[in-house]
Amino acid sequence: MNVGLYQSAASLSALEKWQDSVSQNITSAQVIGYRKRVVNFSAQMAGELQYGQKSASGRGESTGMVFPAATGSINFKHAESHPTRGEFDVAIMGDGYFEVRQPDGTLAYTRNGEFRLGADRILKSSHGFEVLTTDGEPVVLPQAAGPLIITENGTLMQNGVPRGRLAVKDFADEAALYPLDGGLFGVRPGVEAETVENASVQQGYLEGSNVASLREMVDLVLISRAYEANQRIISSLDQQMQKTLDALG
User: Fold this and answer.
1) How many angstroms separate the CA atoms of 17 and 70, rounded?
2) Strand partners, 138
3) 195, CA 20 to 30 Å: which among 12, 50, 117, 167?
4) CA-CA distance, 174 to 187, in Å (whole number)?
C-alpha cells in the first residue's frame, strides 16, 4: 500500500474543511455578533506498516502510519462594539448572551443585540424572535409610553416605569453551544444556561463579528498553496506507481 498517497488524500480532505470554514468566516464577517469558525489539525494513528511479510502486528520492524485530521470549533472571543445610537441596539460589555425564543418554543442565544419593535409591540431580535427578560417573558413596550431607556444592568424603562430586565445568560462550558444561522447559538441537550447577575450592557451600541477579514484572506492563500503541494505529491506518487507497473509488465 502506498501510504503517502493516502496521507496526501487525507491532507486534501482536511484542507477542504479549513477552506469551508474560512469561506464562511469571510461571508459572515459583517454579521452582528458572529463568532469565527476555526479548524484544529491533529495527527491520528492508523495502524502500522510492517517491513517483513511474515512479521506479526506489533512485532519486528514497523512504522506507525500517521494521517492528518481536522476538527471544527468556534472562537468565542469577544469582538469590538461600535456606536449606532439606535434606541433598540444593545451590546453586552462582558460575558454572556441574550436569550431569545424561537417560533417552535426552543431557546437560542446570541450576542447580536440589533433588536426591533414588532407590530405587536414585542421586542424582537433581528431574526424575528422574541427577546426574553430574566423572568422568561417577552418584552412588551406599550405604545405612547415614551422612549425606551436601557440601563447598564439591562433594565428596560419607559418614563420611569420598568418593563423588565434583559436576560443575559452564560454557560460554564461554551463548547455546549452549537451554531445556528445569523449569529445564533443553540444549546446541547442537558445543558442549563446560567443568569449573569452582574451583566453589563450598553444601549446604542452593537458588537461586530470577531472575524479579521485580512487574516482570513491570508489563510485562503495558505490553503491554496498547501492544496497544490499535496496535489503534486499525489501526481508524483501516481507516476511512480505507473512506472513500477510498467517495469513489472
Assistant:
1) 7
2) 132
3) 117
4) 9
Stretch (H or E) spanning 121: none
Paired with 185 in beta bridges are 109, 179
According to the model, what pLDDT value does residue 174 have? 92
Instruction: Please give the pLDDT value at position 53.
Output: 56
Q: Are residues 90 and 187 in the same domain?
A: yes
Total domains present in the chain: 2
If one counts every other C-beta atom within 10 angstroms of the C-beta of residue 222, the result is: 12
pLDDT, average across residues 190-219: 94
92 and 179, same domain (yes or no):
yes
Is 89 in the same domain as 163?
yes
Residues 140 and 223 placed together within one structural domain of the fold: no
Interatomic CA distance for residues 76 and 68, integer angstroms? 25
- Give yes or no: residues 119 and 230 share one domain: no
Buried b (16+ CB within 10 A) or exposed e, 122-158: ebbbbbebbbbbbeeebbbbeeeeeebebeeebbbee
Same structural domain, 195 and 116: yes
pLDDT for the residue 64: 61
